[in-house]
Automatic annotation (TrEMBL):
The keyword 4Fe-4S does not apply. Catalyzes the intermembrane transfer of phosphatidylglycerol and phosphatidylinositol. InterPro entries: Ig_E-set (IPR014756), ML_dom (IPR003172), ML_PG-PI_TP (IPR033917), NPC2-like (IPR039670). Belongs to the NPC2 family. The lineage of its organism: Eukaryota, Fungi, Dikarya, Ascomycota, Saccharomycotina. Residues 69-190 form the MD-2-related lipid-recognition domain. One of its GO terms (molecular function) is sterol binding. This is Phosphatidylglycerol/phosphatidylinositol transfer protein. Keywords: Lipid transport, Signal, Transport. PANTHER family: NIEMANN PICK TYPE C2 PROTEIN NPC2-RELATED (PTHR11306), PHOSPHATIDYLGLYCEROL_PHOSPHATIDYLINOSITOL TRANSFER PROTEIN (PTHR11306:SF0). Residues 1-20 form the signal peptide. It comes from the Eukaryota.
Length: 195
């Protein structure tokens, strides 16, 4: 059991990423449609494969720790400053629990109305684009808005469903306050080998 003192938005955001991954299994039908519609014309843009380049840019910076998470858009002010993110096991294993510990500092309180845009790509295919209510999501890690500014440490364990299709995933999370101030921009890359 983890003792969990304070939790930050990053937690919910990372939770978001992982939740996004865990719903990947429920997206299998979309995934096969996306694969089927490769090269064919579809009026539903959600199912249109989209090639996205993933080279790190000059506004990307690795977050210290072993998670492989990268902070993006660092040329823009961000309310959350992440000191480190550690994950175990590393790399994550399908069908097993994943625990992460995130340390960071918020320069402002996070209040109702904050939202996160989450993109999940599977290989080169855009699998999911979803907007989440940050204050609603953080209740899943026993937190409540407002989240006070200052230094925060969060620990969270999530189970990664075995049904997640093996492959290369890129999860991008951009969180904003209700006034559209950037809280954080994070990109996580996860490879699940076939097993
Ligand atoms: C993951 O952790 C939960 C809670 O500690 C536990 O009930 C569950 O059995 C664990 N799952 C695996 C696959 O280890």
């Amino acid at each position: 059991m983890v003792s969990l003192t304070k939790i930050i938005t990053a937690c919910s955001l990372l939770g978001c990423s992982v939740n996004a991954l865990s719903i990947v299994s429920s997206l299998r039908p979309y995934l096969s449609q996306a694969l089927d519609s490769w090269g064919s014309e579809s009026s539903d843009s959600k199912l249109n494969p989209e090639i996205i380049l993933t080279f790190p840019g000059e506004d990307d910076k690795p977050v210290p720790g072993d998670s492989g998470i990268v902070q993006c858009q660092i040329l823009e002010d961000q309310i959350l400053s992440l000191e480190s993110v550690e994950i175990a096991p590393n790399p994550p294993i399908r069908g097993e629990n994943l625990t992460f510990v995130a340390k960071g500092t918020l320069s402002k309180d996070i209040v109702d109305g904050a939202y996160a845009e989450v993109d999940v790509r599977y290989g080169f295919i855009k699998l999911l684009h979803e907007t989440y209510d940050v204050c609603e999501e953080i209740t899943k890690v026993d937190l409540e808005c407002p989240i006070e500014s200052g230094k925060q440490v969060i620990t969270k364990t999530v189970e990664i469903p075995y049904e997640v299709p093996p492959g290369h995933y890129v999860v991008n999370v951009k969180a904003y306050t209700k006034d559209d101030e950037l809280i954080t921009c994070l990109t996580a890359t996860v490879d699940f080998p076939p097993n």
